[in-house]
Specification:
Elements lengths: L2 H20 L12 E6 L5 E6 L1 E6 H6 L30 E9 L6 E3 L4 E4 L13
Antiparallel strand pairs: 1-2, 3-4, 4-5, 4-6
The structure holds zinc ion.
The site of zinc ion has 8 residues, from strand 1.
């Protein structure tokens, strides 16, 4: 993996790690799941689905919000093609992390992915409409 993409992927996952450290969720759903079943204390410990929303955050958004250092990502792409991630345009705008997040409407327990999926924005844009919930 080329150095620039490694930095981008590490920055995105590192940011998600930070979110989870600040507000630790009770449950850890995979980045692609639409629902997560938990034992709900408010519903007499019955198995209850908690709806998860896709969160889609580009590296550029984090740089703009000063949640990661932008200077680390001042690179241009031609010789930084990343085969594994398929990231050819290495601008911060072209790299995003996807994860899932949600809260039980009955008991308020929270779920958030611990491991996100780093994607090329062109290959995997944000979900829209019904599937995005
Ligand atoms: Zn619940």
């Amino acid at each position: 993996m080329a150095a620039a993409e490694t930095r981008a992927a590490e920055a995105l996952q590192g940011w998600l790690d930070g979110q989870n450290a600040l507000q630790p969720p009770l449950y850890d759903p995979p980045w692609f799941a639409g629902r997560y079943r938990h034992t709900c204390p408010v519903r007499a410990d019955r198995s209850t689905a908690l709806d998860l929303k896709e969160r889609y955050v580009t590296l550029q958004e984090l740089i703009d919000r000063e949640e990661v250092d932008g200077w680390e990502f001042d690179y241009s792409g031609a010789d930084e093609v990343d085969v594994e991630l398929g990231i050819e345009d290495t601008s911060p705008r072209s790299v995003a992390i996807i994860y899932r997040e949600g809260r039980c409407k009955f008991c308020g327990q929270e779920a958030r992915s611990s491991v996100g999926k780093v994607v090329n924005v062109a290959d995997r844009p944000p979900l829209e409409g019904r599937v995005a919930r």
